[in-house]
């Protein structure tokens, strides 16, 4: 299913190992299998939607330094968390997804892929109290709230990374990473907000 996807990665000089390719293929297959019931991604062009989201997640891996723990907020199908865990097996990943069907899918697919140090939390991100290195959001809404509650998600010095199709300067990100997506035919952005809260605050 992902033959064309791996060719695209190769054009970016990205060559995943055979094990990584096999896991990504298995993951993509599970999304296709459950998509009609769980509504994990677009039904109109499921294959392209899967490849687009996988590509976005691999770009995140290229951007991020070495970290110990990541939380995937509003995880949905879990593209960010699953791909990061496949690429970095040593990583601890939390999925926050309040939809019960989607959170059940995340639990099942994590076991089928043999992913350890993974926890699925069926709850709202507003109720979280954790201290990860990185929190990631692909949601098109709620970024202002996420920036506000960031100290409840990442440790001091940690970062919130938000996917965006534009460089939303009004949000005043501390940094950004720009990459070209062949699946959107445009540049995409990772907006970075750092937790600068002082210890004890």
Structural features:
single chain; 201 residues; alpha/beta; Rossmann fold; 6 helices; 7 strands; 38% helix; 23% strand
CATH homologous superfamily name? Vaccinia Virus protein VP39
Element-by-element helix/strand order: HHHEHEHEEHEEE
The best one-word shape is: globular
Classified by CATH, the class is Alpha Beta
Q: Approximately how much helix is present in the residues?
A: 25-40%
Count of strand segments: 7
- Describe the strand arrangement of the main beta sheet, using strand numbers: 3-2-1-4-5-7-6
Number of helical segments?
6
Strand content: 15-25%
| Shape-level CATH architecture | 3-Layer(aba) Sandwich
Largest sheet, strands/sense/barrel? 7 strands, mixed
Ranges where pLDDT stays below 50 over 5 or more residues in a row are none
Tell me, rounded to a whole number, the average pLDDT: 94
What can you tell me about this protein's structure?
The chain is α/β, with parallel strands linked by helices and 201 residues long. It has a single domain, classed as Rossmann fold (3-Layer(aba) Sandwich), CATH 3.40.50. Helices cover 38% and strands 23% of the residues. The protein contains six helices and seven strands. The protein has helices at residues 3-11, 18-38, 46-63, 79-87, 100-112, 143-149; strands spanning 69-73, 92-96, 118-121, 132-137, 154-164, 175-181, 186-194. Strands 3-2-1-4-5-7-6 form a seven-stranded mixed sheet, sandwiched between helices. A hairpin with a 4-residue loop joins β6 and β7. α2 crosses α3 (46-63) and α2 packs antiparallel against α4. The longest helix has 21 residues, at 18-38.
